[in-house]
Amino acid sequence: MFAKLASAFLIASACIWGADAKPIPKNEILPRGSPISFDNWGGLSSFNNFDNFYGVDNFDSSVHFSQVVDTSTQVVCHTEAIEIIQQRLLVLQEMAKRIILEQVCEVETQTVVFQQFHASLGLFSNDLTHVSGH
Fold this sequence. Notes:
Blueprint (H helix, E strand, L loop, with lengths): L1 H19 L61 H22 L3 H22 L6
């Protein structure tokens, strides 16, 4: 008997509450006040001059400062066996791992540098699939 009363009360209160409910206000995303810099991030010395390569607020190198269009005609691509391409890309992958693990000592910096590298590859993927418009 109690279960029937409790379930009836819950259903009735849900209906009343639902009828009285209002939409949740949408939080507007406000633009940042200042660019994000990783220079000396977290007080780690390994982040000294981090932004000197790509620039401040350009973590994944998505901001291109200059684009030069060469209108001359030349062959820029030739076909290679897929196995050779896969081997070369694997070598690049292992080199990236080795560079990050052997030349960056702090785990935090390793993580940020890897994410930066990964993000730039994502931009290249967007270029290949013509998502970026480049």
